[in-house]
Amino acid sequence: MDIELRRVPLPDADIPETQPGIPSREYEERTRALLAAAGTDWVAVYGDREHSANLLFLCGFDPRFEEALLLLGPGERRILIVGNEGVVHASIAGLPLDVALAQSFSLLGQPRASAPRLTDVLRDVGLRPGERIGVVGWKYLEEAETDDLTAPAFVPAFLVRDLRTVTGTDPVDVTAEMMHPVRGLRVHNSPDQIAAFEWAATRVGMAVLGVVRGARPGMTEMEACAAMGYAGEPLSCHPIVASGAPGEAINGLRSPGLRRLRPGDGITVGIGYRGSLSCRAGLLTDEPDAAFLDGVVRPYYAAIATWYATMRVGETGGAVHAAVHDALASAGATFTPMLNPGHQISHDEWVHSPIRLGSGEQLASGMVFQCDIIPTPLPAGTALNCEDTIALADQDLRGRLARDYPDLWRRIEARREFMTSALGLRLSPDVLPLSLANAYLPPFWLSHDLVCTVAG
């Protein structure tokens, strides 16, 4: 595959102003589906500030300073248990539910006189001895990691203890019903959810490219980060701007600091809004570095192009994994992907990934994926990355999106045309780029419209 640098101006951004919402009926359908899939009398869904994605998917609520628990039970009972400050915040939930106070979820030192014990609250809302409880945490263990797949692993121990105390039965882990890469509820997205994620992806892509275009020698990393133009969008991770001089190690996960950028630095920016993360990395120079271009950029973009060409409904994750690794090997790359070359994304940055060695798990319509090929190792003081979000949609889902969200569909069609005509990429009709930034990679930041393309 012949990779060339060409000057390709980015089209004018078409950023949606109105943020699509999730209808209450869809939240209700999700809660019913989870309870049915769990096969238990109740399901208890745990969440906190860092681990809010399951709650957001099920009811649109995210804890801010506290923990929270969503109980789903017989007769379509839906109870959101929160701490002191969550009582008012619970009004943002997107479906009808009861709110109960459990002050153990409150911050230390706050009042606890009204509802100090979670066991009493669980009894008051209707849990009874002998009932079976499914627990949803923020991850689950797989067979190679444990001898007991039924024991809840990623929830606070006191929660499991109190559920057992009230019911007299052992809670079972049903997190896979939410997060499994094939059957998990959260990996299958409706038109409304895809529209909400596209709103985020469009904005986060332009925020990242704003940093790429705005970064200049002499700025601090924090000054460069300000070019993202943050407007209060809900974040899924801490913003990243990290740099280093040739020969210096670059920590690509750290927050921006006061280091001043210098010509020739390696630099990376990563920003995540709920539903999408975008990342770019390269060198802070305007003249292409021939060794970096031939040894790193060309093989890397060949892998990016291969990823986009391989993604489609019905393909296996193992085939995508193999295609990316084969593309790098064919290009003579001295690096490989640090992690999975792509994964499912949702309100959190990483749900799961069927894209792994030998996986027979099939990619399905409605799945939203992150192109996430992290080249490792690279020479110290250099960086390269091109990370963006797509949705996969079969003909039926594409038709529903075009009907229900015509402006979104117009943006997607324009992005596909730009990616194929201007960047030279091949795309299945199933691939819906959720951002104008998709696959737009300027490896030398001071020439921000000099980007990677596929020749021919």
UniProtKB/TrEMBL annotation:
Top-level taxonomic group: Bacteria
Gene3D superfamilies for this protein: Creatinase/methionine aminopeptidase superfamily (3.90.230.10)
SUPFAM superfamilies, per database record: Creatinase/aminopeptidase
Annotated Peptidase M24 domain residues: 203-373
Transmembrane segments: none
Name this polypeptide is given: Peptidase M24 domain-containing protein
Species this protein is from: uncultured Thermomicrobiales bacterium
